[in-house]
Amino acid sequence: MAFPPYVAVVGPSQPDSEVRALARAAGEALAGRGWVVVTGGLGGVMAAAAAGAASAGGTVVGLLPGLDRAAASAGHSVVIPTGLGELRNGLLVRACNAVIAVGGSWGTQSEIALAVTNGIPVHVVAGWAQQAPGTSAYDTVDDAVQALTERLSGM
Questions:
Q1: In Å, what is the CA distance from 56 to each residue of 10, 11, 67, 121?
Q2: Is the pLDDT of residue 155 over 90?
Q3: How many structural domains comprise the chain?
Q4: What mean pLDDT do residues 7-21 have?
Q5: Contact, 30 vs 55, CB < 8 A?
Q6: Chain-centroid distance, C-alpha 95
Q7: Are the beta carbons of 30 and 53 closer than 8 angstroms?
Q8: How far apart are alpha carbons 123 and 96 in whole angstroms?
Q9: Chain centre to alpha carbon of residue 103
Q10: Which of 28, 47, 92, 154 is the right S-S partner for 52, CB 3.0 to 4.6 Å?
Q11: Which range (76-80, 115-119, 151-155) has the least confidence?
Q12: What is the DSSP code (8-state) at residue 3?
């Protein structure tokens, strides 16, 4: 049985409206390709990506840091309360084939670092400026998703 790619959408929990719109577009574009969107399950970029994916009829998995399933933002179709706190960032990236980071924060940086050190490609849109092996920066969500499409084709 073949599974579709799982792509994490990560970013700050308190983004500005531009970053929120980009995250929503990322969720919608990924779900439109039939891919599973995975987030940290809470607000900000996570909620925006979930809303975008849900609007496209996609499957959205939220891996919560706490134990309260009710803490998840709307749009998630599967919610898993991990009880791991920030350690759930490792679970989040290891569960995915790729990561799209939208915007920047220290938590986002930790997810990027965990992904890169585990060989999981990271595509960054509107993030903190950085040049690091394993990451690619894009000007638009469409460019990032197109690059992922090429990278993940055949999965």
A1: 19, 20, 28, 24
A2: no
A3: 1
A4: 97
A5: no
A6: 11
A7: yes
A8: 13
A9: 11
A10: 28
A11: 151-155
A12: -
Structure confidence by residue, pLDDT tens digits, 84-108? 999 999 999 999 999 999 999 999 9
Contact yes or no for 5/98 (Cβ under 8 A): yes
Query: Is 133 among the domain residues?
Result: yes
- Sequence-ordered list of residues with C-beta below 8 angstroms from that of 131, at least 6 positions apart, any chain: none
Q: Say which CATH number the domain at 46 has.
A: 3.40.50.450
Q: What is the mean pLDDT of the chain?
A: 94
What are the beta bridge partners of residue 122? 99, 135
| Whether pTM exceeds 0.90 | yes
Residue carrying structure tokens 């995975």: 38
Q: What is the pLDDT of residue 132?
A: 78
Q: Indicate whether 141 belongs to any domain.
A: yes
At residue 153, the pLDDT reads: 83
Domain presence at residue 64: yes
Report yes or no on 89 lying in a domain: yes
Average pLDDT, stretch 11-39?
A: 97
Burial of 77 (0-12, 13-18, 19+ CB in 10 A): middle
Residue type at position 106 = W
What is the residue-wise DSSP string for 32-69? HTTPEEEE-SSSTHHHHHHHHHHHTT--EEEEESSS-G
Range of the domain at 72: 12-100+109-150
